[in-house]
């Protein structure tokens, strides 16, 4: 089989890349190993992302108009979301909807697992294991959209991404009408714990850089949030999973583009990855459409680099101790800080002025 582009992974990054390529008359094939996969994920996506990326909101969802932040000393800040909302989706349905859009645009799909890559002078040959046989696909370019445990990275001899470890699951018969973010070194050192509404009940999780302690931190969070020291047994779909911890990374190597979690494109501090994976997929597609592989890195850096650097600096300074988080909490109480946060995070404002205003709020803390 021969195609112009082989996309490995049909999650948000891969489906968006394939869609853009197909819409621009490129011959593109997605290889996805599990069509019914339910990625462990809070499923929270800013509503503006749907407009920005022209995604029809066909899937069932919950819409939230407020977030609540809990400080280590139990101060609570509720922020009404202005100019948008958070849409919470079921990832199985959302990913499948994105793939359907790509297929309607003309992309092909094969259900199988990428197992090997051979490099040729002007192309690559990928081996794909399907339920019946191993097929070989020759492609001019490959887009690695196969997530945090990327096999493509491994086959291309690129070291794995650094990561934050999460433990998360679902609790039924409980509701919340806001997205809750809970901070404390006691249950989420250098990260946060969350409770998000979901289609049935709530999704709960905690993020930590210490995988071995994750279960203990998760239990402590359940006690803090629900005042119940025996709730772990009621958590459904409890799963540990990694989220990339962003650092400057390989964008393109030997005809392979690295997008989404496979490229480490998750925003530090918020750990928002769905929007950025779709954007990185779209940027890689643009680079192929224009026949300029280096354009991928240029587009990504121009749009996101300063934001990612700033959020990483904020994470590394303010999430280091409870006292420092309380300082950040004080800043977030200011209306002007909230306003610019909403512009950047919820509305995905791309202007330089917003980022400069944001940097100025934190200047005295971050050098
Ligand atoms: C617990 C948790 C909560 C999160 N909550 C949020 C949230 O609320 N909002 C948000 O924006 N982000 C969230 N994220 C991050 C978000 O889930 C990811 O950033 C996003 O899924 C990345 O998309 P992707 O397409 O790059 O990778 P993935 O979604 O991981 O998709 C990769 C695809 O590749 C396929 N695949 C893998 N290997 C192969 C192979 N060898 N051959 C063929 N196919 C393969 C997989 O089956 C999968 O479909 C969360 C992450 C976690 C772990």
Strand and helix layout:
Blueprint lengths: L1 E7 L3 H12 L4 E5 L11 E3 H6 L8 E4 L1 E5 L5 E5 L5 E4 L1 H15 L2 E4 L1 E7 L4 E6 L4 E11 L6 H5 L7 E9 L7 E4 L10 E5 L4 E7 L5 H13 L9 E9 L7 E2 L2 E3 L1 H4 L10 H16 L4 H25 L3 H11 L2 H12 L5 H11 L5
Parallel strand pairs: 1-2, 1-11, 2-8, 5-13, 11-18
Antiparallel strand pairs: 3-7, 4-7, 5-6, 9-10, 10-11, 12-15, 12-16, 13-14, 14-15, 17-18
Helix pairs in contact: 1-3, 1-7, 7-8, 10-11
How would you characterize this protein structure?
By secondary structure, the protein is α/β, with parallel strands linked by helices. The protein has 3 domains: 2-60 and 91-161 and 245-304, FAD/NAD(P)-binding domain (3-Layer(bba) Sandwich); 163-244, 2-Layer Sandwich (D-Amino Acid Oxidase, Chain A, domain 2), CATH 3.30.9.10; 306-362, no CATH class. Helices cover 35% and strands 27% of the residues. The strands form 3 sheets. Strands 1, 2, 8, 9, 10, 11, 17 and 18 form an 8-stranded mixed beta sheet that branches. Bound molecules: flavin-adenine dinucleotide. Flavin-adenine dinucleotide binds at residues 8-14, 31-34, 37, 39-45, 113-114, 145-147, 151, 166, 168, 205, 241, 243, 260-262, 266, 271-275, 277.
